[in-house]
Automatic annotation (TrEMBL):
<feature type="repeat" description="PPR">
    <location>
        <begin position="288"/>
        <end position="322"/>
    </location>
</feature>
<feature type="compositionally biased region" description="Low complexity">
    <location>
        <begin position="41"/>
        <end position="54"/>
    </location>
</feature>
<dbReference type="InterPro" id="IPR002885">
    <property type="entry name" value="PPR_rpt"/>
</dbReference>
<keyword id="KW-0809">Transit peptide</keyword>
<dbReference type="InterPro" id="IPR011990">
    <property type="entry name" value="TPR-like_helical_dom_sf"/>
</dbReference>
<feature type="compositionally biased region" description="Low complexity">
    <location>
        <begin position="73"/>
        <end position="83"/>
    </location>
</feature>
<feature type="compositionally biased region" description="Polar residues">
    <location>
        <begin position="61"/>
        <end position="72"/>
    </location>
</feature>
<keyword id="KW-0677">Repeat</keyword>
<dbReference type="Pfam" id="PF13041">
    <property type="entry name" value="PPR_2"/>
</dbReference>
<protein>
    <submittedName>
        <fullName>Pentatricopeptide repeat-containing protein mitochondrial</fullName>
    </submittedName>
</protein>
<feature type="region of interest" description="Disordered">
    <location>
        <begin position="33"/>
        <end position="83"/>
    </location>
</feature>
<dbReference type="InterPro" id="IPR044605">
    <property type="entry name" value="At1g26460-like"/>
</dbReference>
Length: 399
């Protein structure tokens, strides 16, 4: 050992790179390693068996078809035909307005309020787009997909149903069209418009029944029907009777009322009464208050006051509520019979609490005219009292 150490120190003193000599000595003095290839150890060796491990809890969003379409998959959440491009191109309000309204109240209650506003404005496309956007979004409170309830689904279904539906014209539009056709004698088109008018507003509870009155709204059609006398009235009635047997049948009480009043205007009580009876017997319909008013007017014009009073009593026994026109026609019947006192009695009954109608200024003027012709000064004073009660300025002229 001493000889080896002395030889090593001698070599170090006489060599310029002594560390290389030490490295060679270390390599040559080491045991040779085996060069045979060996397989890497199995990575599962020593790991716990997954079959025996406790399973993970189920995914809370399992079963939601829209879970993969939220923020975890933005490409699926916003396809090329999705919300934003359609909103920007097809809506007059734009995406910013709609999304601003949505994000103000992002919960279900706020969405219902927004839907109520859109329904009032008939913005059906906006409702559909907003619903689609809401169900694709996550709840801000829980982070889970939004789940619409039954009310929201009903709003969505209604929006799909009303999409593309046209708004019905107003009653004034139909009446203007009826006036136009009646003024130029196009009765077929006028009655066709009346049929459309009845289909749109005939069963509506919010529409005033005076819209179908032959004395006011449909009076131009009445004038057109009796323009050439009974020949035009008979032609209209025959066509209405033929249409009642068509497929589909067309039956209209309002149209028959125009014929009855047209017969009254030409002083033909027989045709008026036959048309009134045909409403129930041939057309299988029920006369309304306008039908009775037209028949009452026909009797009153021929000074058949007793028959007119019988019609009025028949209306009361049927439980049909008279309107202001009923009382006005009955007043005219008494005035035609030169009986102003009976006319004033009808007016007193008209203004009672049960009826609650107000006589028109024209009605009071006609009563006062009859009082002047019959020299009935007591009735005239009563007429003036009624005029003051209803703030009518009658003037000094009786004619």
């Amino acid at each position: 050992m001493a000889a080896a150490a002395a030889a090593t120190s001698l070599l170090i003193r006489h060599n310029r790179n002594p560390h290389l000599l030490l490295l060679r000595a270390a390599i040559s003095s080491s045991r040779a390693l085996s060069q045979q290839p060996e397989l890497s150890p199995d990575p599962t060796t020593g790991a716990p068996d997954p079959a025996g491990a406790a399973p993970l809890p189920p995914n809370p969003s399992t079963g939601s078809p829209l879970y993969s379409q939220n923020w975890r998959n933005p490409a699926a959440a916003n396809p090329p035909s999705s919300l934003l491009p359609t909103v920007a191109a097809g809506s007059s309000f734009g995406a910013q307005h709609r999304m601003a309204a949505f994000y103000d109240k992002p919960d279900a209650a706020g969405l219902k309020e927004t839907f109520a506003k859109y329904m009032a404005e008939q913005r059906w496309e906006d409702m559909k787009l907003l619903f689609d956007h809401w169900v694709r979004s996550l709840d801000a409170a829980t982070g889970k997909p939004n789940h619409p309830d039954v009310d929201l689904f009903n709003h969505y279904l209604r929006a799909n149903l009303m999409t593309g539906a046209k708004r019905a014209p107003t009653p004034e539009t139909y009446l203007a069209k009826i006036y136009a056709h009646s003024s130029i004698g196009q009765l077929q088109r006028a009655f066709g418009t009346l049929h459309e008018f009845e289909n749109a507003y005939g069963n509506s509870k919010d529409v005033d029944l005076e819209l179908f009155s032959p004395f006011t709204s449909l009076h131009p059609l009445v004038v057109a029907c009796c323009k050439d006398g009974f020949s035009t009235l008979d032609l209209v009635y025959v066509q209405l009777e033929n249409l009642s047997h068509a497929d589909p049948p067309y039956k209209s009480v309002a149209a028959l009322n125009c014929v009855i009043l047209g017969c009254a205007n030409i002083w033909d009580i027989n045709r008026a009464y036959e048309t009134f009876v045909a409403i129930k017997e041939k057309f299988e319909l029920s006369p309304d208050i306008h039908s009775y008013n037209a028949l009452l007017c026909a009797f009153g014009k021929l000074k058949q006051t007793g028959e007119a009073c019988n019609v009025f009593q028949h209306v009361l026994t049927l439980g049909v509520k008279p309107n202001a026109t009923t009382y006005s026609r009955l007043v005219d019947a008494h005035l035609a019979n030169k009986d102003p006192k009976a006319a004033l009695a009808i007016i007193d009954e008209m203004v009672q609490v049960d009826a609650g109608f107000t006589p028109s200024k024209d009605t009071l003027r006609k009563v006062r005219r009859r009082c002047s012709r019959e020299s009935d000064f007591d009735s005239d004073e009563k007429v003036q009292s009624l005029a003051k009660q209803f703030n009518y300025r009658m003037g000094g002229s009786f004619y």
